[in-house]
Amino acid sequence: MKLGRNDRCWCGSGKKYKVCHERFDSILDFHKANGSVVPSRKIIKNETQIQGIRESAKINIAVLDYVTEHIKSGITTAEIDKWVYEQTTAMGGIPAPLNYEGFPKSVCTSINDVVCHGIPSKNAVLKDGDIINVDVSTILKGYFSDSSRMFCIGSVSLEKKRLVNIAKQSLEVGLKKVKPWRHLGDMGQAINDFVKANGYSVVREIGGHGIGLAFHEDPWVSYVSRQGEEMLMVPGMMFTIEPMINMGSHRININQTDGWTVTTKDGLSSAQWEIQVLVTEDGYEIIAY
Q: Hey, which residues does 202 pair with through a beta bridge?
């Protein structure tokens, strides 16, 4: 729809188009004309929405902080699920994974060779030497946040510690490529090159995603993409950076019984950290970690 310069902007900010997104749209049109994949308006957040998402993220971060303080050997993943549910709801939030497309728990807990979407269980007891990813997602007043952290339980082998550290460093490598009017593929290639140089592989079939007004929005974010390709990153876009790093092959299996649990095909360990980022006018803002 063509807007007049004095019309209210399409983003819902209430501001006049000429002082809000007129220049943004002209830059977007330029890149689109030059072959770039550009985001739709529905995934561009205005300041009111961004503030709501920040408030959701405060809960998400606090819940992960609670897990950080209490996780240890002997704890079951069912107990972690209980912590996440109780802490999230006590702060006014809703655990986003609970009943999402049939997922039965409030958090994903992925141990050792579980790549992602591990289902908490009273039978899964953390033991010395394990590594685990705890993936927390929160809804607050309709706004979504999402981040995850790795935890080393007790005395972990140097091999596993290195995997966990390289996975975390890959986020920092990717963040350096998050810039407005650049492509998601810039980040994807930087992460993949870094991981491969360190002797590991990146899962291909599962990636990051847009988030904020829904749990999963466009764009889908690959970490095996190429520089100059994939969707254009623009101010107001929000997505997760969450490469899944395997110690061995990138190949994975999905549990056919529960339909959720993803494991490495070769049985070697996998590690993942996840952050939620907002593209700004001059770079990025980390929303949840």
A: 245
